[in-house]
Design brief:
By secondary structure, this protein is of the alpha/beta class. It is built from ten helices and ten strands. The N and C termini lie far apart (43 Å). This is High-affinity branched-chain amino acid ABC transporter ATP-binding protein LivG.
Length: 255
Amino acid sequence: MSKVLLQVSDLTMRFGGLLAVDGVQFDVHDDEVFAIIGPNGAGKTTVFNCVGGFYKPTTGVITMDGKPIHGMPSHKVAREGLVRTFQNVRLFKNLTVLENLLVAQHQHINTSLASGLLKTPAFRRSEEEALANAAKWLDFMGIREYANREAGNLAYGHQRRLEIARCMITRPRLLMLDEPAAGLNPQEKRDLQQLIDQLRREFDVAVLLIEHDMSLVMGVSDRIMVMEHGRPITTGVPDEVRTDPRVIKAYLGED
Ligand SMILES: Nc1ncnc2c1ncn2[C@@H]1O[C@H](COP(=O)(O)OP(=O)(O)OP(=O)(O)O)[C@@H](O)[C@H]1O
């Protein structure tokens, strides 16, 4: 039986005179892929930034497993099992692919400086585990051959996969993907759809997605919330959303 993992109620975000998000509510179940779509400027990224701890919402309640997380900084939100990728891939571009995955684990595990300096057995063990984990994810993403390359020199599609690996290596309960198909070619988009399906199946992770590529959204999502002018206009399964006249109007009305 699935249960509600993320719950967002009455979320509002104001930037000066602009109400970018206006009374948004939705929930994401622990076994679900939930997408937020809508025309440019609808408020999707702002919702993401509030949920991920990058913005402090003006009003609203956001809970993970019943625990309030609104207003928490992003690193604390990550400890609650909620991590994200960005519209423009954000990696440590001068570090190698492998180092990016090791850093992600250190940021998350928070090992003590003393144990690191003294290289205690426990510290060495955790280093070995981190390395094994990184190798596992490099294999899973099909990028092991690039392990020692600077992340900034990878092909764009591989950078996106590395960014997802960097999230997954912290064993999140909710993975937030911000336009993961942007900049990918058609084959890479198909691979991405398979990857999202596989992550959900094999790692029990729920996915919250913002995406403009309708074929990916319709193919991968269990439910979709459509936003326009900061407000949700409908939430439903792909077939309901695809044929909803309000959704068609919102998109046709776009410049
Ligand atoms: N930091 C900010 N300061 C002021 N206004 C902002 C800020 N971030 C977003 N906005 C405004 O809030 C509104 C919603 O923007 P948002 O980026 O959330 O939309 P979006 O649906 O993600 O759009 P896109 O699909 O283009 O990414 C827009 O009018 C935008 O200009």
